[in-house]
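Recall from the previous lesson that a structure prediction takes nothing but the amino acid sequence as input. Here we apply that procedure to Pyrrolo-quinoline quinone repeat domain-containing protein from Frigoriglobus tundricola. The sequence below is the only information supplied.
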Amino acid sequence: MTARHWLPALGAAALIATAATADDPKGASGDPLPQGAKVRLGSTRMRVPTGWYSFALAADGRSLVTLSERGKVIAIDVTTGAVNGGPVPFVRPVRMELSADGTRGVTTGYGGPVVYDLATGTVKAKIDFVVPFGESSGLLSADGKVLALGGGKGANQKVRALVWDVEKNEKRAEVEVLQNQAANAVISGDGTVLATWGNHFKEFKPGAEPKPEEDHSRVAQFWDAASGAERGRYRVSGYAVSTVALAPDGKTAVVGSGDGGVYLVDTTNGALLRRLFGRSDQGNRVAFSKDGKRVAVGGADGTVQIYDPATGARVSRTGCPVGPLPYGGVRELKFTGAGTVTAWAVVNAAAVVWEVPSGRLLSPTGGHTGAVDSVAFTADGKTVLTAGNGAVLRWDPATGKQTGAVRLRAPGRAGDADALGARFGPGALTIRTGGSAPAVYETESGDQLFALRGPGDYNSESILCTDGRTLLVATRPGGPAPKAEPAAMRVPVWDTTTGIKLAELEPRFGTLVAAGTSPDRKTVVTLVGVRVGDTFKTDHFVTGWDLATGKNLGEVPVAPAPGQHVLVPAPDNTAALVATESGKLAVVDFVAGKVVREIDTERQVPTAVSPFSPDGKWFAVGSGSSGFGPKPAVRVYDWKSGKVVRTFRGHDTGIQSLAFSPDGKALASGSLDTTVLLWDISEK
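The prediction returns the following tokens.
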């Protein structure tokens, strides 16, 4: 059964359907729990791993809206994350904009601009016109009856902009802009004035000084939307025009330069009325209120400033409630009241929506905002540690609640270190591979324990095994390349808890791709890529080593899956699991010198393989992608038989990390959907 709801943000006529709510068990975040899951860590609400490019903020600021391939409205409630109207499309390489009255929407992409009636999903206009992938390549007037389009560079054509009459589905005006690469365009609310700006490229002769007056990237032009006659132009002093907004009557424009310069301009002649002074790096987004009496200016860090355009006075300054934005800045600003603005931004896979000037966060928050790259249980099983997109978080596995975050502190650095490429091991250690040098941190305190190499040592490859203590360092000789590469390289193996060198390995000369230790730490297994002569081809070899003596136990040539360097040593100290280019898991017996069997992964390329369960009987494989192909799955295999003993499905996108609990009764899976699911694998 379906229920129909009014969506005020899209106008009184816009009806959308939403699926009835099932009585599914809920996690701590309120997200439904799939069958077999004990708890979910984090939330999938307000997360779109494939990107928010095709979403726009509705007129009342309550929903983020996109369209399906058939023009059906799909809206995400910004306060609850509930999706109305159907599943979110996988990837639509289009830009979405809404008219101010919420009756129409325009998409711009490879198929050309299309205007939809949001109440019925019918196409009102489809224009054969090349548009760039810009933030303002197509914008509608307030009533959706007039469309402004910025053009891209076509064959033997100069860059143009169009004014399109949506009601008649015909061109109203066409202008040739100054820029020679691409143009952005906006239309005033009443549809009378067009503004354009864009990208310009000019070659300079060697030694010639660039002339700012010839750089058309710095120019905004204003046009009569009916006749196409130019009314005026304004040149910013910054690097380039970043954005333009027109007052509802089109008589005034706010021009941002993205470097902090924001200018109020008379569109009738291009004259500067005043500069709006404020913070640096402001002006990547600007907007007028519906009555034209207020101007909102967004900055790169998420700060939003509101000005009185009549006096130039700053009325308010509001920071983003989740802290400074990492990149991209404010995505969109929309006045929802006389002096109230709704702003939104994208942080990794999550959308953050807040109110200005109150600073009130509207959207759900907490948990990871991007893929969970690593997951682990502490030794007592009472805490789960997760890492992804620079954050390390702690969770209670019994309740699913986040209990804290780990602030990684690097010596000589004022701010926190980023947990990029983190990996956990027993003893609650994490390896950081982002920034100046890889290092290991204590996850309880966040203090750095030791660095894996110096900041300037770029000739070494360091791999910390999943036991959290065994470190392999492969060092390439510096200086000019030798005429003939040596047959082998030296790889010392260190115990990072004692500082003792355990062994020195001599694998083939090449790239140390992956390494791991057996559960009892008697054996270390390496995967090395060796370039074939002067070609671009690379051969790979799996080699087993006695960790006590460094003795070579044998090697096997393999063809690993491209980009999936999965290597998991087995408990028997004679074999390892390797993900192959055929999409299967190969059991490589390095002592026997051959692949002894292949494990069928049901034609799904493994994206993650866990270490073995504490009793050595099972291992888990994660698979799946985002949108295309089979739904992501977690499969638990019996090591002896190679048969599947458990299958779980519940993540929306591919599995990135897997870990067994210390008692072997639970399995954690981290996903691109930003959450971790704890699965019940106890014997039944």
